Amino acid sequence: MNAENIVIPFLNRQRARSAGPDGRRTGSFFPANSAKGEVSSKSEIPFDQVGSARNPEGIEHNGFREFASNALEFDIGQLLQLKSFVYLLIATGLFLFQTNNTLSIINLSLQNEKLRTELDMINSVLTAQELKVHELQSIHNIAGDAVMLGLSASSTPPVELVK
Questions:
Q1: CA–CA distance, 111 with 96 (Å, rounded to integer)
Q2: Where are the domains of the chain?
Q3: Which residues, in sequence order, are CB contacts of 132 under 8 Å at separation 6+?
Q4: Where are the alpha helices (DSSP H) in 44-81?
Q5: Global pTM?
Q6: Which of 12, 158, 5, 154 minimizes the C-alpha distance to 78?
């Protein structure tokens, strides 16, 4: 957005309002020669006018209140120009794009966590099956060694003792 569209008229109004009765600047935000790029020295602004709410002449300075009211007063016509509208449209598009990316990242992280949980469950099932295979393999090896020693298998099925 072009800074001159909104900022420069605001600064000019502020400069005009902050001039004292003798035409000198009286301790506002903006230096007296800012249009020329020069900064006024501190000696141009009397301390009693900057440091207190009232100066010796009895003129009251409401800097913050005046600044806040000026900040709220802006020309809507500057905002309605095509160039400003295009800049706002681009900024809104970028904001929506970033928001969409953030939401996508959150959804992907939730999906990733869900898949990690499923993978852990599958790994635990595989580990349990491997243990069962090793147990059955051990039983088969013991049965083979028993036959080699001349022992025969019992005709009655084994009885499982429950603790």
A1: 22
A2: 3-80, 83-152
A3: none
A4: 47-51, 63-72, 76-79
A5: 0.39
A6: 5
